[in-house]
Design brief:
Largest interface: A-B, 43 and 37 residues
Order of helices and strands of chain B: H
Low-confidence stretches of chain A: none
Radius of gyration of chain A: 20 Å
Number of strands of chain A: 0
Strand content of chain A: under 5%
Oligomer: heterodimer
Distance between the termini of chain A: 47 Å
Radius of gyration of chain B: 21 Å
């Protein structure tokens, strides 16, 4: 009940803008502190007995890979908000999240590639995990193109919401690709049945970096949503201006 | 702290993540300032919201 009331309250863009103005500086501060702690822990983490110092790439690759999928999840919930609940900020949330999700996916691909070269002997392999993440990246770009192609935001929102929900099929494929197919990519080692296989010396820096990157996403997303609301106000005022001139 | 024979891969990864995150932050801040400036410009021309409140106010 409380959550429903909060979501209803936030349906008012002015109230949402007031809330973001209050919490954004705090969120940015906590994110910066956690990132600093995570980076320090990553720098101090010991070398892996097999991978040596290249294990440090894991501390940035894994959070970006998690967020690549998580952001699509957020966009899928927002898509439901657009199509089912018709929440006024749902499509604002979806549109604002897409470029941030694309950036995290790009970073997951490139850092994975830079980790793969010394460990696997190749920058790229067309295996199930790598290919499905590349498809996710292309879907992010496709969504961003769709938002730009359709001028009316509400029409673009419905088309983007359908595409987002269809694309959500790719998320479990990415997650379980390492179990369903023989891939070069290692299987899940953090979130798995039977607990993490990572040593605590690696697990803690990884968890701190994952929380820091998640907060970074929340901060950037709220700021981008605020920009999108302002952009729509600009559009509405420009239309009013044009109709006043025509009259 | 020694990064071993693959230091260039590690440093490039961290530098790239820092660059992209910085780019995202700069883009979002620039976009915010651009929208605020456009709203003030339109309001200065006499067009206001139906509520009468300034659109640039948060």
């Amino acid at each position: 009940m409380k959550l429903t009331e909060t979501l209803t309250d936030l349906a008012n863009p002015t109230r949402f803008l007031a809330l973001t103005a209050r919490i954004l500086p705090w969120l940015a501060g906590v994110t910066a502190i956690l990132l600093a702690i995570g980076l320090y822990q990553s720098a101090m983490a010991p070398d892996d007995y097999q991978q040596g110092a290249t294990v440090k790439i894991m501390f940035i690759h894994v959070p970006n890979a998690w967020l690549a999928m998580f952001v699509w999840g957020v966009m899928s919930v927002a898509a439901l908000g657009t199509l089912v609940w018709r929440h006024p900020l749902a499509d604002v949330a979806a549109k604002a999240a897409a470029p941030i999700g694309a950036a995290f996916t790009f970073l997951a691909l490139v850092t994975g590639s830079l980790w793969g070269r010394p460990m696997w002997g190749t920058y790229w392999e067309w295996d199930a995990r790598l290919t499905s993440v590349l498809i996710l990246f292309l879907m992010y770009l496709g969504l961003m193109a769709l938002w730009r192609a359709v001028e009316d935001p509400s029409r673009a929102a419905r088309a983007a919401a359908v595409l987002t929900l269809v694309g959500a099929i790719n998320i479990p494929i990415i997650k379980f690709s390492v179990d369903w197919w023989n891939t070069l990519h290692q299987p899940a080692s953090v979130i798995r049945m039977g607990g993490s296989t990572l040593d605590k010396a690696f697990l803690w820096p990884l968890l701190v970096m994952a929380i820091a990157f998640s907060l970074l996403f929340v901060t950037l997303h709220l700021a981008a949503m605020r920009n999108e609301i302002l952009r729509r106000r600009v559009r509405n005022l420009q239309m009013m201006q044009a109709s006043q001139r025509a009259a | 702290m020694s990064l071993g024979p693959y230091a260039s891969f590690i440093v490039t990864s961290y530098a790239l993540v820092a660059a992209v995150v910085l780019l995202l932050i700069v883009w979002i801040i620039t976009d915010y300032r651009r929208q605020q400036a456009r709203l003030k410009e339109i309001e200065a021309s006499g067009v206001t919201r139906r509520s009468g409140r300034s659109a640039a106010d948060i």
